[in-house]
């Protein structure tokens, strides 16, 4: 009974690692190549290879023998989501970053919006 509970916990952890890596990989795929160059955060191809490998090593049928690779994949996913993704969002104008300074709440994308005045 104790072994079954342990195996269930390990399966949940492996699935969580897999979901985390898949999310990071898909997010990296959806970002533009020029945004990576603009942020000096390696290239899009580099991150797709690293995160793709993280997805592969986190597949549940590979077993628990690859824990060191799973941890390395987790670290790569965390680095992407904590460091690279916010920089890409800021360059691409995808919100979520710090608010612009000096702007008004009525500013539109092409300057101030004065309601037709």
Report on this structure.
The protein has 117 residues and is mostly helical. It has one domain (2-94). Helix content is 65%, strand content 3%. The chain has four helices and two strands. Helix 1 runs parallel beside helix 4 and helix 3 runs antiparallel to helix 4.
Topology:
Elements: H1 2-30, H2 33-39, H3 44-57, H4 67-92, E1 107-108, E2 111-112
Antiparallel strand pairs: 1-2
Order of helices and strands: HHHHEE
Count of alpha/pi helices: 4
pLDDT averaged residue by residue? 83
Largest sheet: 2 strands, antiparallel
Radius of gyration: 20 Å
Query: What form results from the Cα inertia axes?
Result: elongated
The separation of the N and C termini measures 74 Å
> How many individual β-strands?
2
The proportion of strand residues reads: under 5%
Task: Decide which structural class fits the backbone.
Answer: mainly alpha
Provide the spatial order of strands within the biggest beta sheet: 1-2
Assembly type: single chain
The level of helicity is 55-70%
Number of domains: 1
InterPro entries: DUF2516
Pfam family, one: DUF2516
Region (Disordered): 92-117
Protein name: DUF2516 family protein
